[in-house]
Amino acid sequence: MAGKRATINDVASLAGVSIATASKALNGRQDVRAATRERVLAAAAELSFQPNALARGLLSGQTRTVGLLTSDSVGRFGIPVLLGAEDAFGAGEMAVLLCDARGDAIREQHHVRALLSRRVDGLIVVGESTNPRPSISKDLPVPVVYAYGPSEDPGDVSFVPDDVGAAAMAVQHLLALGRRRIAHITGPAHYKAARDREEGVRRALAEAGVEQAGQTLSGVWSQRWGRHAAEMLLMAEPEIDAVFCGSDQIAAGFVEGARERGRRIPDDIAVVGYDNWEVLSTETRPALTTVDMNLEVLGRTAAQHLFAAIDGKATPGVHTLPCQLVIRDSTAPPGIS
Amino acid sequence: MAGKRATINDVASLAGVSIATASKALNGRQDVRAATRERVLAAAAELSFQPNALARGLLSGQTRTVGLLTSDSVGRFGIPVLLGAEDAFGAGEMAVLLCDARGDAIREQHHVRALLSRRVDGLIVVGESTNPRPSISKDLPVPVVYAYGPSEDPGDVSFVPDDVGAAAMAVQHLLALGRRRIAHITGPAHYKAARDREEGVRRALAEAGVEQAGQTLSGVWSQRWGRHAAEMLLMAEPEIDAVFCGSDQIAAGFVEGARERGRRIPDDIAVVGYDNWEVLSTETRPALTTVDMNLEVLGRTAAQHLFAAIDGKATPGVHTLPCQLVIRDSTAPPGIS
DNA sequence: CTCCTGCACTTAAAGGTTTTCGGAAACGTA
DNA sequence: TACGTTTCCGAAAACCTTTAAGTGCAGGAG
Predict the structure, then answer these.
(1) Is the full-model pTM beyond 0.85?
(2) What does the DSSP 8-state code read for residue B5?
């Protein structure tokens, strides 16, 4: 802990110039003689001078700081988005002020006020699910971008993964493997993610003229439910040859349950998961074919559009970003496994 | 996006007082008449005035902001620490500026400079492992606290989980269950965490006068290694009745491998994991008895001590925080399972 | 010689808030 | 009335940086 920090004043007097000249020299302005600039730079280095971002921000009205407001403490979806955003910002010298509202609207309001008082240039709001959430953008003096969970207000800027398209892609993959008795196990129906993925399944099957094997099974997003669903499904529809699961946890549970009932994965039943949560998707046996929502890309995109919005070029609406199917052993063709 | 933001000047003129009086009224100072204070508060509410934290910080030299510097992008350990810190700060109106160095020293330096230029009041450095890391505190004008990964400099303030004690506790738990042929499978020996946990095993066994079953098996922190280790171990030491694993991933793999070889968990072999990574520890069958490092508590403690250090009351040294054994089915007494 | 131009630098203002100090009014006391 | 005390409020400085405007000087053109 050194003493008082050097100001541009100290630099100027050490270099024997005025603070205006010092400022110009440090910022690379042109009307400074090379020799003078050299002296100033040397003085700054000597004092290890760091310009005070507060003073600069006070003057310019720009803090080069954005607030990131997340609701899911556990961070399973928020973290990749955060990393993507931090990545996009890091390149441009931006900083991220992180706040966790813990799903509490009051706390969220509180955090928004605190961020505004710190004069952030913009806000990214990360939802805990893809369900639309109340807008906070009303009367806010800075632009806001919603990531993962879109705003209810279509005038806001939101970025969400294309759950419908991804589910369709997963089913098309199963169809391409020759599977025709395809079932779907997913999470609670009050999740838009569950409904969207079901919709994608329906579309892909309709397009191919194939009937879904049994009803969609809605439960929770857990491994336990996957095991339980395996029991029920294999009882009701014993001849299924493929299952698309709404999460990797469900898929891992299904694999376990199906194997206990003597089904081989992927030979008897091909399985596709969702989320590409590495600890599950790559470590289970067989490794899971699964949908990767590209959340880091989503976060980066949201950050880039926040930049644009700060510069006045907002692009209102809910933008869906494509997902990616990561193919692994759980849908390998029969001959190979 | 409203127009220009209200300043205390606007509030003062709307209330018909000077800015000094407005400031005093807003900050609850005593030498303001009640009626005047009322007028000022009403004016502030009317304009939805938010004091400019930059101006305030410029004057007071305190930004009520701390920097959190993390190295592990994946965030398995960083995130809980971050949440704990955010929790401790949130209560006191502090904000967290998040930076991810991605394990790159250059980038880290860059971030430190950026944070310093923003005049953070302090820094928390979160390591990616418990291996000691180079200090950054030298000549820094603000206090620094290290969490999870301690600083190499004993003059710094560091908080780490008590890996030795936790491993001993895990082994004592197995001994209390009557197990006497206890093996240990863990991660790479260049991790201090692996060496510490091994040391804890050694101490607990020595104290009880029990020999370890076979050599400690060092591999990687993966489920795959756990499966592989199960094969090797059951070949070399077929009569083991308990295994302490260096991570939940290894434990999950071991359970799988042991079961394939006909061992029942926990009846034949009791298993203890490490990390309490919920997706593994609660969802596997049987649910894993495991060590919880209380990382949120660690983060919160680090944050609180950073507060203290900001106030000039630093407590140098490496402080170890106790872990907690979470007992689940994988070590249930024989009769019950 | 005067005027103009361009260069290198300085002065001063601005940005929003807090705080110290001083002033004015009201009130009580002699 | 004169004076001291209390209460409430205002003027101005301070924090640090950037930038518009201005100053002084040298050299070239007329």
Answers:
(1) yes
(2) P
